[in-house]
Amino acid sequence: MTPVKTLARLALTALVALATPPAAIAQDSGRLRLEITDAVIEPMPIAVPQFIAESAGASDMAARISQVVVDDLIGTGLFRQIPSDAFISQVTAFSSPVQYADWKAINAQALITGAVSTDANGLINVKFRLYDVFAGQELGDGLQFAGTQEGWRRMAHKVADAVYNRITGEGGYFDSRVVYVAEAGPKDQRQKRLGIMDYDGANVQYLTDSSAIVLAPRFSPTGDRILYTSYETGFPRIYVLDVASVGRRALPIPDGDMAFSPRFGPDGNTVVFSLTQGGNTDLWRMTVDGASPVRLTNAPSIETAPSFSPDGSRIVIESDRSGTPQLYVMDANGGEATRISFGQGRYGTPVWSPRGDLIAFTKQNKGRFHIGVMRVDGSEERLLTASFLDEGPTWSPNGRVIMFTRETQGAGGEARLYSVDSTGRNLKPVSTGGAASDPAWGPLQK
Amino acid sequence: MKILARAALIAGALALCACAKTGADRFGNDVALGGNAANAGIIPGSANDPASAAYFQQSVGDRVLFAVDQSTLTPEGRATLQGQAQWLMTNSDYTAVIEGHADEQGTREYNLALGARRANSVQEYLISQGVASSRLRVVSYGKERPIEVCSTEACYAKNRRAVTVLAAGMS
What domain range includes position B93? Predict the structure, then answer.
């Protein structure tokens, strides 16, 4: 396998704020703000004139970057793009004063302007400013990113992340990657290999070949390593893969029939996983180097799918100790587990939100599968999706979006990735170019 | 399916071993000569050779089925496994990997664990019938390798299985 290309090293600098009339600053109470709530909201209309090409030959890059910024923002379902043929003002230079009245007239709540330049060394420079049209002022300082040509999409994602952050007050999630299982072949002979891609499906690269079944990859907290399960030896074992070099090694696991369902702790060193001994599956933890293995559960029931709380103190797990698979929260060092799922049906694959407030899960009830969320104490359960087979949720870095696997039924059944907001809105397929399952969303890149 | 391929090789090797008494057939190829008339016409390694993997698969029965979420053996399952145990004790050159499987109605992780329970049930039963534990290994495929691909109970029932796959000789 060829090593994964290092994407652009991005340099970030703040631009000097444009001169703002004092009167506008005083209007801070009416500041542009979009609060993400459960209520149905009308998407905010925004204007994103194509970024200005500030050097010869940069116009194609400026068009592509503008488009990715728009795709990121519109893709959230929170914004609506005002078509450029409705624009009254044209932005012809990045430093031109903004004609707020013209943007107000077409009801643009926010205006994003940008400029792109390229140089002979293959570097590109992207800058942008965000305007609160109705307040008649810039929202935050303009920012400038410098990087290599091949990292152009990351620079566009950085712009969109900054815009999203300023308008919603939430961290962004566009400059992030997803590791998943790329699938091919018929249902009874599925070929599986690990793929990694940008959150929007761009820049797909494969990390393993299809010679052995691979399952459920999980990122380290910094995104530099991936834990996954492979049948490389003929028996399920856990491997850790270095994303940059694509080198991998088997985790030294205590004796057992099989080990699977690994997940990193927030320290990036602790690993929790399922180990099956004599047909019985329990949870263990140890360091990623195999040091100090500790058995966390010791019951004849199945204990699997552990996921850490963001502070690393607790884990949420799936167990059938009550007779059917249900969700439990327990101390990350072991001890009593408290059941948190009490609705009808079977619950599995719980994943703690990076915000710490919710647990996403798979629910199976009356022949249908759902992705749902509940509070950490099990209250306020809400189902976000329903289909023949939805499973395996993973959270966006800001804890606002959930990606999961949806598989269609029958002989021609095929798995695809979908995403949905934790509010239940904005359900849509994620482009992967082929069948795919088991997504794991990585952190926001630095 | 490395294990299957390996089993086929072993079956082939055993067929050669069985050729102590050989003669040329009318095409000049060596064929096994049966020790008695009853064996006439038996092609070593084929399904009518009682020492073959194919015979084990087709006549003894290489798999047992399970109810939804269950790993308890059914009476039919126990009868099949008694046959498997007898065969394995007669044909002591074989080892076996018991593959546990689940239908697609369940999460990937839970089904892996459920498949392991099923494989273990079979392993324990075979051991209780006298098969040496050192000859048996277990593996779970969860819902990764369905044998039937429809999404109805007719297929699910066949996918909830544990299959005894003959493999390499004594370790």
Answer: 62-167
